[in-house]
Structure formats: C-alpha cells, structure tokens
Design goal:
It contains 3 helices and no strands. It has 90 residues and is mainly alpha-helical. The chain is elongated, with a radius of gyration of 14 Å. It starts with a helix and ends with a helix. The mean pLDDT is 97.
C-alpha cells in the first residue's frame, strides 16, 4: 500500500473519531446548559472528512436529529466522501 493511502486512512480515522466525539460532547453541553460547540465547527469537521463519525455521533447521541440540514447533509457528505475515497484510492 502506498504511503499517501496509509496517511489518508489515518487522517480519516482521526477526523471521524473527532466528529463522533464532538457530537457527543455538544449533546452533553446542551443537556447541562453549558456553552456549546458551534454548528459551524461541527460542519467543518464533517466536511473535512469526518462525515461518517459525525453522522454516527448524531444518530447514537441523538443530537441535531431535528435539524433538517444535519439530518440530510451528513448522509449526503458520507456518500460524497465515500465516492471520492473510491475514486482516489481504488
């Protein structure tokens, strides 16, 4: 396997874990009434490759599920990122 593919896979693992964790942390902050993680930050992580982790974080933590932009946008990003990954790596 080429070095750039390994680096890409490691990046995607890290960014998706970050997306999952951010969704969970923001849900906890919402429950406690604390200062929240901005929606912009959540979207940036998803757009930069963390769409799968963000989507699963949304579903598992039941966070942002009433927001149509998140409910539709995250799955569309997953499809887009999956297609790009297949195109570049395979």
């Amino acid at each position: 396997m080429e070095t750039w593919v390994i680096a890409l896979n490691l990046y995607l693992i890290v960014i998706n874990i970050a997306g999952f964790i951010l969704m969970g942390r923001d849900k906890e902050k919402a429950r406690r009434g604390e200062y929240r993680i901005s929606e912009r930050t959540l979207w940036q992580v998803a757009i930069l490759g963390g769409s799968v982790g963000s989507y699963f974080g949304m579903r598992i933590h039941r966070h942002k599920t009433k927001h149509v932009a998140f409910r539709l946008g995250f799955p569309l990003l997953v499809i887009l990122h999956g297609g790009l990954y297949i195109w570049f790596v395979l």
